[in-house]
Protein backbone atom coordinates (compact mmCIF):
# COMPACT_ATOMS: atom_id res chain seq x y z
CA UNK A 1 0.00 0.00 0.00
CA UNK A 2 1.27 3.45 -0.93
CA UNK A 3 2.23 5.85 1.83
CA UNK A 4 3.43 9.49 1.75
CA UNK A 5 3.82 12.30 4.25
CA UNK A 6 2.08 14.82 2.00
CA UNK A 7 -0.31 14.16 -0.85
CA UNK A 8 -0.90 17.04 -3.27
CA UNK A 9 -3.80 16.64 -5.66
CA UNK A 10 -3.41 18.76 -8.79
CA UNK A 11 -0.41 20.03 -10.75
CA UNK A 12 -1.19 23.70 -11.39
CA UNK A 13 0.73 26.67 -10.01
CA UNK A 14 -0.46 26.34 -6.41
CA UNK A 15 0.30 22.62 -6.07
CA UNK A 16 3.68 22.84 -7.77
CA UNK A 17 4.80 25.96 -5.90
CA UNK A 18 3.76 24.38 -2.62
CA UNK A 19 5.59 21.15 -3.51
CA UNK A 20 8.75 22.98 -4.51
CA UNK A 21 8.93 25.10 -1.37
CA UNK A 22 8.08 22.26 1.00
CA UNK A 23 10.42 19.75 -0.61
CA UNK A 24 13.35 22.17 -0.46
CA UNK A 25 12.68 23.08 3.16
CA UNK A 26 11.99 19.52 4.30
CA UNK A 27 14.03 16.94 2.41
CA UNK A 28 13.02 14.45 5.12
CA UNK A 29 9.37 14.50 4.00
CA UNK A 30 7.98 12.39 1.17
CA UNK A 31 5.68 14.25 -1.20
CA UNK A 32 3.39 12.78 -3.84
CA UNK A 33 1.68 14.90 -6.50
CA UNK A 34 -1.24 13.19 -8.20
CA UNK A 35 -2.72 14.65 -11.33
CA UNK A 36 -5.56 13.25 -13.36
CA UNK A 37 -3.99 13.78 -16.78
CA UNK A 38 -0.44 14.75 -17.67
CA UNK A 39 1.20 17.31 -15.39
CA UNK A 40 1.00 20.38 -17.68
CA UNK A 41 -2.69 19.72 -18.35
CA UNK A 42 -3.95 22.48 -16.02
CA UNK A 43 -5.82 25.74 -16.02
CA UNK A 44 -2.56 27.45 -15.04
CA UNK A 45 -0.93 26.80 -18.39
CA UNK A 46 -3.85 28.58 -20.09
CA UNK A 47 -3.51 31.72 -17.97
CA UNK A 48 -2.64 34.48 -20.38
CA UNK A 49 -2.74 37.78 -18.47
CA UNK A 50 -0.12 37.43 -15.75
CA UNK A 51 0.43 38.31 -12.11
CA UNK A 52 -0.68 41.53 -10.48
CA UNK A 53 2.18 42.80 -8.29
CA UNK A 54 3.05 46.32 -7.17
CA UNK A 55 6.61 46.80 -8.39
CA UNK A 56 6.63 50.53 -9.11
CA UNK A 57 6.16 52.27 -5.78
CA UNK A 58 6.30 55.75 -7.32
CA UNK A 59 3.25 55.46 -9.58
CA UNK A 60 1.57 52.61 -7.72
CA UNK A 61 1.19 51.43 -4.13
CA UNK A 62 -0.05 48.45 -2.12
CA UNK A 63 -2.92 50.67 -0.99
CA UNK A 64 -4.11 51.21 -4.57
CA UNK A 65 -3.92 47.50 -5.40
CA UNK A 66 -5.84 46.73 -2.18
CA UNK A 67 -8.46 49.34 -3.05
CA UNK A 68 -8.93 47.94 -6.58
CA UNK A 69 -9.25 44.39 -5.23
CA UNK A 70 -11.83 45.41 -2.63
CA UNK A 71 -13.83 47.41 -5.17
CA UNK A 72 -13.88 44.54 -7.65
CA UNK A 73 -14.94 42.14 -4.86
CA UNK A 74 -18.11 44.16 -4.27
CA UNK A 75 -17.70 44.56 -0.50
CA UNK A 76 -17.37 40.81 0.10
CA UNK A 77 -13.59 40.42 0.48
CA UNK A 78 -11.76 39.68 3.70
CA UNK A 79 -9.69 42.85 4.13
CA UNK A 80 -6.93 41.23 6.21
CA UNK A 81 -6.45 38.55 3.54
CA UNK A 82 -6.40 41.12 0.74
CA UNK A 83 -3.68 43.05 2.58
CA UNK A 84 -1.65 39.91 3.29
CA UNK A 85 -1.75 38.71 -0.32
CA UNK A 86 -0.91 42.06 -1.90
CA UNK A 87 1.89 42.90 0.53
CA UNK A 88 3.44 39.43 0.11
CA UNK A 89 3.37 39.64 -3.70
CA UNK A 90 6.91 41.01 -4.24
CA UNK A 91 8.49 38.21 -2.17
CA UNK A 92 6.60 35.49 -4.04
CA UNK A 93 7.51 37.13 -7.36
CA UNK A 94 11.17 37.08 -6.32
CA UNK A 95 10.91 33.31 -5.76
CA UNK A 96 9.51 32.81 -9.27
CA UNK A 97 12.32 34.90 -10.72
CA UNK A 98 14.90 32.86 -8.80
CA UNK A 99 13.81 29.69 -10.60
CA UNK A 100 14.20 31.42 -13.95
CA UNK A 101 10.64 32.50 -14.72
CA UNK A 102 10.82 35.24 -17.28
CA UNK A 103 8.52 38.25 -17.48
CA UNK A 104 8.63 40.84 -20.26
CA UNK A 105 10.61 44.04 -19.93
CA UNK A 106 10.36 47.26 -21.95
CA UNK A 107 13.13 48.95 -23.93
CA UNK A 108 14.35 50.74 -20.79
CA UNK A 109 14.80 47.39 -19.06
CA UNK A 110 11.85 47.98 -16.71
CA UNK A 111 8.98 45.54 -16.26
CA UNK A 112 6.53 45.88 -19.14
CA UNK A 113 3.52 46.23 -16.87
CA UNK A 114 0.14 45.41 -18.40
CA UNK A 115 -3.21 46.97 -17.58
CA UNK A 116 -6.42 44.98 -17.08
CA UNK A 117 -10.03 45.69 -16.10
CA UNK A 118 -10.56 47.12 -12.62
CA UNK A 119 -6.88 48.05 -12.11
CA UNK A 120 -6.18 51.72 -11.55
CA UNK A 121 -2.52 51.24 -12.58
CA UNK A 122 -0.42 49.22 -14.97
CA UNK A 123 0.80 46.44 -12.64
CA UNK A 124 0.52 43.10 -14.45
CA UNK A 125 3.78 41.20 -14.98
CA UNK A 126 3.40 38.93 -17.95
CA UNK A 127 5.27 36.64 -20.30
CA UNK A 128 3.83 37.79 -23.62
CA UNK A 129 0.30 36.28 -23.59
CA UNK A 130 1.29 32.94 -22.07
CA UNK A 131 2.31 33.79 -18.51
CA UNK A 132 0.80 30.67 -16.94
CA UNK A 133 2.58 28.36 -19.36
CA UNK A 134 5.93 29.98 -18.56
CA UNK A 135 5.40 29.55 -14.81
CA UNK A 136 4.11 25.98 -15.16
CA UNK A 137 7.13 24.98 -17.27
CA UNK A 138 9.67 26.45 -14.84
CA UNK A 139 8.02 24.88 -11.81
CA UNK A 140 7.78 21.45 -13.45
CA UNK A 141 11.46 21.58 -14.30
CA UNK A 142 12.37 22.15 -10.65
CA UNK A 143 9.91 19.53 -9.40
CA UNK A 144 11.57 16.89 -11.60
CA UNK A 145 14.89 17.58 -9.88
CA UNK A 146 13.69 17.28 -6.29
CA UNK A 147 14.28 13.73 -5.05
CA UNK A 148 11.60 13.73 -2.35
CA UNK A 149 8.79 14.51 -4.82
CA UNK A 150 7.05 11.82 -6.85
CA UNK A 151 4.79 12.99 -9.63
CA UNK A 152 2.06 10.52 -10.57
CA UNK A 153 0.32 11.38 -13.84
CA UNK A 154 -3.01 9.90 -14.94
CA UNK A 155 -4.03 9.26 -11.35
CA UNK A 156 -7.61 10.35 -10.76
CA UNK A 157 -8.36 10.78 -7.06
CA UNK A 158 -11.85 9.48 -6.31
CA UNK A 159 -12.36 10.39 -2.70
CA UNK A 160 -10.63 11.43 0.47
CA UNK A 161 -10.60 9.18 3.48
CA UNK A 162 -11.17 10.73 6.89
CA UNK A 163 -11.23 9.65 10.49
CA UNK A 164 -13.38 11.29 13.17
CA UNK A 165 -12.31 11.21 16.82
CA UNK A 166 -13.89 13.36 19.53
CA UNK A 167 -15.87 15.26 16.91
CA UNK A 168 -12.73 16.24 15.01
CA UNK A 169 -12.52 14.97 11.43
CA UNK A 170 -9.01 14.44 10.07
CA UNK A 171 -7.98 13.56 6.52
CA UNK A 172 -5.85 10.44 6.41
CA UNK A 173 -5.72 9.12 2.88
CA UNK A 174 -7.29 8.94 -0.54
CA UNK A 175 -8.67 6.45 -3.03
CA UNK A 176 -7.51 6.92 -6.55
CA UNK A 177 -7.91 5.41 -9.97
CA UNK A 178 -4.58 4.59 -11.55
CA UNK A 179 -5.40 4.96 -15.23
CA UNK A 180 -2.06 3.45 -16.21
CA UNK A 181 -2.94 0.07 -14.68
CA UNK A 182 -6.71 0.51 -14.65
CA UNK A 183 -6.86 -0.18 -10.92
CA UNK A 184 -8.32 1.54 -7.92
CA UNK A 185 -5.87 1.93 -5.07
CA UNK A 186 -5.43 3.65 -1.71
CA UNK A 187 -2.72 5.96 -0.40
CA UNK A 188 -2.12 6.75 3.29
CA UNK A 189 -0.98 10.26 4.13
CA UNK A 190 -0.28 12.56 7.05
CA UNK A 191 -1.79 15.51 5.25
CA UNK A 192 -3.48 16.38 1.97
CA UNK A 193 -3.27 19.54 -0.10
CA UNK A 194 -6.05 20.08 -2.63
CA UNK A 195 -4.96 22.19 -5.59
CA UNK A 196 -7.56 20.90 -8.00
CA UNK A 197 -8.70 24.13 -9.68
CA UNK A 198 -12.24 25.20 -10.48
CA UNK A 199 -15.49 24.00 -11.99
CA UNK A 200 -15.88 25.94 -15.26
CA UNK A 201 -16.94 22.76 -17.07
CA UNK A 202 -20.31 23.01 -15.34
CA UNK A 203 -21.21 25.70 -17.85
CA UNK A 204 -21.87 25.58 -21.59
CA UNK A 205 -19.57 28.47 -22.35
CA UNK A 206 -16.33 28.28 -20.44
CA UNK A 207 -12.67 29.13 -20.87
CA UNK A 208 -11.75 26.22 -18.56
CA UNK A 209 -10.34 22.99 -19.96
CA UNK A 210 -12.14 19.64 -19.73
CA UNK A 211 -10.40 18.78 -16.48
CA UNK A 212 -12.16 21.62 -14.59
CA UNK A 213 -14.94 19.49 -13.15
CA UNK A 214 -14.84 20.73 -9.55
CA UNK A 215 -13.28 17.49 -8.22
CA UNK A 216 -11.59 19.05 -5.19
CA UNK A 217 -14.70 20.89 -4.05
CA UNK A 218 -16.83 17.77 -4.38
CA UNK A 219 -14.31 15.60 -2.51
CA UNK A 220 -13.86 18.20 0.23
CA UNK A 221 -17.62 18.55 0.62
CA UNK A 222 -18.01 14.77 0.91
CA UNK A 223 -15.25 14.76 3.52
CA UNK A 224 -17.25 17.29 5.55
CA UNK A 225 -15.29 20.48 4.77
CA UNK A 226 -17.19 23.75 4.62
CA UNK A 227 -17.73 25.22 1.16
CA UNK A 228 -18.51 28.90 0.76
CA UNK A 229 -19.55 31.47 -1.83
CA UNK A 230 -20.04 29.12 -4.76
CA UNK A 231 -22.73 31.46 -6.06
CA UNK A 232 -19.95 33.77 -7.27
CA UNK A 233 -18.84 32.39 -10.60
CA UNK A 234 -16.88 34.88 -12.64
CA UNK A 235 -17.65 35.22 -16.34
CA UNK A 236 -14.81 36.49 -18.50
CA UNK A 237 -16.19 38.96 -21.04
CA UNK A 238 -13.99 38.09 -23.99
CA UNK A 239 -13.99 34.42 -24.91
CA UNK A 240 -13.76 33.76 -28.63
CA UNK A 241 -17.24 32.82 -29.87
CA UNK A 242 -17.23 29.51 -31.73
CA UNK A 243 -20.82 28.29 -31.68
CA UNK A 244 -21.28 25.22 -29.51
CA UNK A 245 -17.57 24.71 -28.85
CA UNK A 246 -16.44 23.99 -25.28
CA UNK A 247 -14.01 25.14 -23.98
CA UNK A 248 -13.77 28.51 -25.67
CA UNK A 249 -10.46 30.15 -26.40
CA UNK A 250 -9.73 33.08 -24.08
CA UNK A 251 -8.81 36.49 -25.43
CA UNK A 252 -6.92 38.06 -22.58
CA UNK A 253 -8.18 41.11 -20.82
CA UNK A 254 -4.72 42.49 -21.51
CA UNK A 255 -5.91 43.03 -25.09
CA UNK A 256 -8.46 45.54 -23.81
CA UNK A 257 -5.75 46.97 -21.58
CA UNK A 258 -3.78 47.48 -24.79
CA UNK A 259 -6.67 49.47 -26.26
CA UNK A 260 -9.10 47.05 -27.94
CA UNK A 261 -12.77 48.06 -28.00
CA UNK A 262 -15.90 46.00 -27.56
CA UNK A 263 -18.53 46.79 -30.19
CA UNK A 264 -22.02 45.60 -31.04
CA UNK A 265 -23.50 44.36 -34.30
CA UNK A 266 -23.58 47.95 -35.62
CA UNK A 267 -19.89 48.36 -34.84
CA UNK A 268 -20.64 50.77 -31.98
CA UNK A 269 -18.99 50.82 -28.55
CA UNK A 270 -21.57 50.49 -25.79
CA UNK A 271 -19.76 49.93 -22.51
CA UNK A 272 -19.70 53.56 -21.43
CA UNK A 273 -23.49 53.30 -21.06
CA UNK A 274 -22.78 50.94 -18.16
CA UNK A 275 -19.60 52.22 -16.53
CA UNK A 276 -17.38 55.26 -16.96
CA UNK A 277 -14.34 52.95 -17.24
CA UNK A 278 -15.76 51.49 -20.46
CA UNK A 279 -13.79 48.45 -21.64
CA UNK A 280 -11.65 48.64 -18.50
CA UNK A 281 -14.47 48.16 -16.02
CA UNK A 282 -14.35 44.96 -13.97
CA UNK A 283 -15.36 41.64 -15.54
CA UNK A 284 -18.77 41.39 -13.88
CA UNK A 285 -19.80 44.78 -15.26
CA UNK A 286 -18.44 44.16 -18.76
CA UNK A 287 -20.04 40.70 -18.93
CA UNK A 288 -23.40 42.06 -17.73
CA UNK A 289 -23.29 44.74 -20.38
CA UNK A 290 -22.45 42.28 -23.15
CA UNK A 291 -25.27 39.93 -22.15
CA UNK A 292 -27.69 42.83 -22.21
CA UNK A 293 -26.48 43.94 -25.62
CA UNK A 294 -26.73 40.38 -26.96
CA UNK A 295 -30.23 40.09 -25.61
CA UNK A 296 -31.35 43.38 -27.10
CA UNK A 297 -29.85 42.64 -30.50
CA UNK A 298 -30.95 38.95 -30.38
CA UNK A 299 -27.39 37.99 -31.34
CA UNK A 300 -25.22 35.25 -29.90
CA UNK A 301 -22.14 37.40 -29.50
CA UNK A 302 -20.63 40.89 -29.74
CA UNK A 303 -17.19 41.78 -31.13
CA UNK A 304 -13.71 42.74 -30.03
CA UNK A 305 -12.31 45.42 -32.29
CA UNK A 306 -8.51 45.55 -32.56
CA UNK A 307 -8.37 47.10 -36.02
CA UNK A 308 -7.16 50.51 -34.78
CA UNK A 309 -4.22 49.01 -32.87
CA UNK A 310 -0.65 48.84 -34.18
CA UNK A 311 -0.60 45.38 -35.86
CA UNK A 312 3.08 44.67 -35.33
CA UNK A 313 2.88 45.59 -31.63
CA UNK A 314 -0.26 43.45 -31.33
CA UNK A 315 1.38 40.43 -32.95
CA UNK A 316 4.45 40.87 -30.77
CA UNK A 317 2.55 41.25 -27.50
CA UNK A 318 -0.10 38.62 -28.10
CA UNK A 319 1.51 35.93 -30.28
CA UNK A 320 -0.65 33.04 -29.05
CA UNK A 321 -3.89 34.95 -29.45
CA UNK A 322 -2.89 36.17 -32.91
CA UNK A 323 -1.83 32.65 -33.93
CA UNK A 324 -5.07 31.14 -32.72
CA UNK A 325 -7.15 33.76 -34.54
CA UNK A 326 -5.15 33.38 -37.75
CA UNK A 327 -5.61 29.61 -37.66
CA UNK A 328 -9.35 30.12 -37.92
CA UNK A 329 -9.00 32.78 -40.62
CA UNK A 330 -9.48 35.76 -38.30
CA UNK A 331 -7.02 38.60 -38.66
CA UNK A 332 -7.23 41.06 -35.73
CA UNK A 333 -5.76 43.88 -37.87
CA UNK A 334 -8.74 43.74 -40.25
CA UNK A 335 -11.49 41.52 -38.80
CA UNK A 336 -13.85 42.01 -35.90
CA UNK A 337 -13.41 39.11 -33.45
CA UNK A 338 -16.69 37.56 -32.24
CA UNK A 339 -16.71 37.26 -28.45
CA UNK A 340 -19.03 36.06 -25.73
CA UNK A 341 -18.79 35.98 -21.91
CA UNK A 342 -17.79 32.56 -20.56
CA UNK A 343 -17.51 30.98 -17.11
CA UNK A 344 -13.89 31.59 -16.17
CA UNK A 345 -13.23 31.52 -12.45
CA UNK A 346 -14.85 30.28 -9.31
CA UNK A 347 -14.55 33.00 -6.66
CA UNK A 348 -15.83 30.78 -3.83
CA UNK A 349 -14.78 27.26 -2.93
CA UNK A 350 -13.43 25.26 -0.02
CA UNK A 351 -13.35 27.56 2.99
CA UNK A 352 -9.80 28.02 4.27
CA UNK A 353 -8.02 30.12 6.88
CA UNK A 354 -5.00 32.31 6.19
CA UNK A 355 -2.82 29.18 6.04
CA UNK A 356 -4.96 27.37 3.49
CA UNK A 357 -6.30 25.00 6.16
CA UNK A 358 -9.87 23.78 5.62
CA UNK A 359 -12.33 22.95 8.37
CA UNK A 360 -11.12 19.31 8.19
CA UNK A 361 -7.89 18.70 10.14
CA UNK A 362 -4.76 18.11 8.01
CA UNK A 363 -6.68 18.99 4.84
CA UNK A 364 -5.48 22.08 2.98
CA UNK A 365 -6.87 23.77 -0.14
CA UNK A 366 -4.97 26.26 -2.27
CA UNK A 367 -5.48 27.89 -5.67
CA UNK A 368 -8.85 28.22 -7.39
CA UNK A 369 -10.53 25.43 -5.39
CA UNK A 370 -10.09 27.45 -2.18
CA UNK A 371 -12.23 30.28 -0.87
CA UNK A 372 -9.67 32.47 0.84
CA UNK A 373 -11.56 35.76 1.10
CA UNK A 374 -9.37 37.53 -1.50
CA UNK A 375 -11.86 37.72 -4.34
CA UNK A 376 -15.23 38.48 -2.77
CA UNK A 377 -17.97 38.49 -5.39
CA UNK A 378 -15.74 39.13 -8.38
CA UNK A 379 -12.00 38.49 -8.66
CA UNK A 380 -9.80 41.32 -9.85
CA UNK A 381 -7.96 40.33 -13.04
CA UNK A 382 -4.56 38.66 -12.57
CA UNK A 383 -5.01 38.25 -8.82
CA UNK A 384 -5.45 34.48 -9.13
CA UNK A 385 -1.89 33.37 -9.91
CA UNK A 386 -0.83 35.70 -7.10
CA UNK A 387 -3.28 34.14 -4.66
CA UNK A 388 -2.07 30.68 -5.64
CA UNK A 389 1.55 31.61 -4.83
CA UNK A 390 0.76 33.30 -1.54
CA UNK A 391 -1.47 30.53 -0.21
CA UNK A 392 0.96 27.84 -1.36
CA UNK A 393 3.58 29.67 0.70
CA UNK A 394 1.30 30.04 3.71
CA UNK A 395 0.29 26.37 3.63
CA UNK A 396 3.91 25.29 3.21
CA UNK A 397 5.01 27.31 6.25
CA UNK A 398 2.12 26.01 8.30
CA UNK A 399 2.66 22.36 7.39
CA UNK A 400 6.37 22.67 8.04
CA UNK A 401 5.70 23.77 11.60
CA UNK A 402 2.91 21.29 12.34
CA UNK A 403 3.47 18.09 10.38
CA UNK A 404 5.76 16.52 12.94
CA UNK A 405 2.78 16.17 15.23
CA UNK A 406 0.58 14.56 12.50
CA UNK A 407 0.38 10.78 12.75
CA UNK A 408 -0.41 8.31 9.99
CA UNK A 409 -3.81 6.84 10.68
CA UNK A 410 -3.98 3.16 11.51
CA UNK A 411 -7.29 2.99 9.62
CA UNK A 412 -6.55 1.29 6.33
CA UNK A 413 -9.31 0.81 3.81
CA UNK A 414 -9.35 -1.66 1.01
CA UNK A 415 -11.00 -0.21 -2.12
CA UNK A 416 -14.23 -1.99 -2.87
CA UNK A 417 -14.25 -1.15 -6.55
CA UNK A 418 -12.22 -2.41 -9.40
CA UNK A 419 -11.96 -0.13 -12.40
CA UNK A 420 -13.16 -0.50 -15.94
CA UNK A 421 -12.99 1.89 -18.83
CA UNK A 422 -15.86 1.50 -21.22
CA UNK A 423 -16.47 3.48 -24.40
CA UNK A 424 -20.26 3.43 -24.11
CA UNK A 425 -19.90 4.90 -20.68
CA UNK A 426 -17.99 7.91 -22.07
CA UNK A 427 -20.72 8.70 -24.57
CA UNK A 428 -23.56 8.39 -22.09
CA UNK A 429 -21.86 10.55 -19.52
CA UNK A 430 -21.03 13.09 -22.20
CA UNK A 431 -24.76 13.43 -22.86
CA UNK A 432 -25.50 13.76 -19.14
CA UNK A 433 -22.66 16.27 -18.77
CA UNK A 434 -24.21 18.41 -21.50
CA UNK A 435 -27.52 18.27 -19.63
CA UNK A 436 -25.86 19.56 -16.45
CA UNK A 437 -24.10 22.31 -18.41
CA UNK A 438 -27.36 23.45 -20.03
CA UNK A 439 -29.24 23.31 -16.75
CA UNK A 440 -26.67 25.23 -14.76
CA UNK A 441 -26.08 27.81 -17.47
CA UNK A 442 -29.78 28.56 -17.82
CA UNK A 443 -30.25 28.63 -14.08
CA UNK A 444 -27.23 30.80 -13.39
CA UNK A 445 -27.86 33.38 -16.09
CA UNK A 446 -31.58 33.78 -15.52
CA UNK A 447 -32.77 36.55 -13.29
CA UNK A 448 -35.36 34.36 -11.63
CA UNK A 449 -33.03 31.55 -10.61
CA UNK A 450 -35.77 29.03 -9.95
CA UNK A 451 -33.92 26.82 -7.44
CA UNK A 452 -36.79 24.34 -6.94
CA UNK A 453 -36.97 23.66 -10.67
CA UNK A 454 -33.18 23.30 -10.84
CA UNK A 455 -33.13 20.84 -7.93
CA UNK A 456 -35.84 18.74 -9.58
CA UNK A 457 -33.97 18.60 -12.86
CA UNK A 458 -30.71 17.69 -11.13
CA UNK A 459 -32.52 14.87 -9.36
CA UNK A 460 -33.62 13.45 -12.71
CA UNK A 461 -30.10 13.61 -14.08
CA UNK A 462 -28.76 12.01 -10.88
CA UNK A 463 -31.26 9.15 -11.13
CA UNK A 464 -30.25 8.49 -14.73
CA UNK A 465 -26.57 8.43 -13.72
CA UNK A 466 -27.19 6.14 -10.76
CA UNK A 467 -29.13 3.65 -12.87
CA UNK A 468 -26.27 3.64 -15.30
CA UNK A 469 -23.60 3.30 -12.60
CA UNK A 470 -25.44 0.42 -10.92
CA UNK A 471 -25.04 -1.63 -14.08
CA UNK A 472 -21.28 -1.44 -14.15
CA UNK A 473 -18.16 -0.72 -12.17
CA UNK A 474 -16.77 2.72 -11.38
CA UNK A 475 -15.25 4.59 -14.34
CA UNK A 476 -13.51 7.90 -14.90
CA UNK A 477 -16.50 9.57 -16.63
CA UNK A 478 -18.64 8.48 -13.71
CA UNK A 479 -16.21 9.97 -11.16
CA UNK A 480 -16.02 13.32 -12.94
CA UNK A 481 -19.74 13.40 -13.57
CA UNK A 482 -20.52 12.68 -9.88
CA UNK A 483 -18.25 15.55 -8.88
CA UNK A 484 -19.97 17.89 -11.33
CA UNK A 485 -23.33 16.88 -9.92
CA UNK A 486 -22.19 17.53 -6.34
CA UNK A 487 -20.80 20.95 -7.25
CA UNK A 488 -23.90 21.89 -9.29
CA UNK A 489 -26.03 21.18 -6.23
CA UNK A 490 -23.75 23.29 -4.03
CA UNK A 491 -23.93 26.21 -6.48
CA UNK A 492 -27.72 26.04 -6.64
CA UNK A 493 -27.95 25.83 -2.84
CA UNK A 494 -25.63 28.79 -2.38
CA UNK A 495 -27.60 30.82 -4.92
CA UNK A 496 -30.72 30.06 -2.92
CA UNK A 497 -29.05 31.10 0.33
CA UNK A 498 -27.97 34.47 -0.96
CA UNK A 499 -29.87 35.80 -3.91
CA UNK A 500 -27.34 37.87 -5.79
CA UNK A 501 -28.03 37.38 -9.47
CA UNK A 502 -24.84 37.69 -11.44
CA UNK A 503 -26.43 38.69 -14.68
CA UNK A 504 -28.73 41.68 -14.75
CA UNK A 505 -32.32 41.31 -15.83
CA UNK A 506 -32.51 40.57 -19.53
CA UNK A 507 -36.13 41.62 -19.80
C1 LIG B 1 -6.89 37.19 -18.89
O1 LIG B 1 -5.77 37.17 -19.38
O2 LIG B 1 -7.78 37.92 -19.26
C2 LIG B 1 -7.18 36.25 -17.76
C3 LIG B 1 -6.38 36.58 -16.60
C4 LIG B 1 -7.14 36.30 -15.34
O3 LIG B 1 -8.08 35.49 -15.36
O4 LIG B 1 -6.87 36.95 -14.34
UniProtKB/TrEMBL annotation:
InterPro entries, alphabetized: FAD-dep_OxRdtase_2_FAD-bd, FAD/NAD-bd_sf, NadB, Succ_DH/fumarate_Rdtase_cat_sf
Residue ranges of every copy of the FAD-dependent oxidoreductase 2 FAD-binding domain listed in the record: 5-385
Keyword Cytoplasm: no
Cofactors: FAD
Gene Ontology, cellular component aspect: cytoplasm
Any single biological process term in GO: NAD+ biosynthetic process
Pfam families for the chain: FAD_binding_2
UniProt pathway annotation: Cofactor biosynthesis; NAD(+) biosynthesis; iminoaspartate from L-aspartate (oxidase route): step 1/1
Catalysed reactions, as listed in the record: L-aspartate + O2 = iminosuccinate + H2O2
GO molecular function, one term: L-aspartate oxidase activity
Enzyme class, spelled out: oxidoreductase
Entry keywords, A to Z: FAD, Flavoprotein, Oxidoreductase, Pyridine nucleotide biosynthesis
UniProt EC number: 1.4.3.16
Catalytic residues as annotated in Swiss-Prot or TrEMBL: 283 (proton acceptor)
Protein localization: Cytoplasm
Domain of life: Bacteria
Function (record text): Catalyzes the oxidation of L-aspartate to iminoaspartate.
Family: Belongs to the FAD-dependent oxidoreductase 2 family. NadB subfamily.
Protein name, entry field: L-aspartate oxidase
Taxonomic source organism: Flavobacterium johnsoniae (Cytophaga johnsonae)
Amino acid sequence: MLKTDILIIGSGISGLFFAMKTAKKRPDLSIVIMTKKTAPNTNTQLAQGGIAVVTNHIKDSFEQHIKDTLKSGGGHCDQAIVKMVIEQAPERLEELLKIGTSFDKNQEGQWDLGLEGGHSQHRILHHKDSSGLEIEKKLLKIIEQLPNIQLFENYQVIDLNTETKQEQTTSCGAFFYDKNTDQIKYIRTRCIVLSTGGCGQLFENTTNPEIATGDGIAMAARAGAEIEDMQYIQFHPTALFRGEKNPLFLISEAVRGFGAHIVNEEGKRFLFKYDSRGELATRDIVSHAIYREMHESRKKHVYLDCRHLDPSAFYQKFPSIAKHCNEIELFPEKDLIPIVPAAHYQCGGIKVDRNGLTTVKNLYAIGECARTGLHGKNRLASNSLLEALVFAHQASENINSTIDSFEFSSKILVPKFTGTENKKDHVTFLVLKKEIQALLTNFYLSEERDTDFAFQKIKLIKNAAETLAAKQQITIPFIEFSNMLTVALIIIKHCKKRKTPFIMSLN
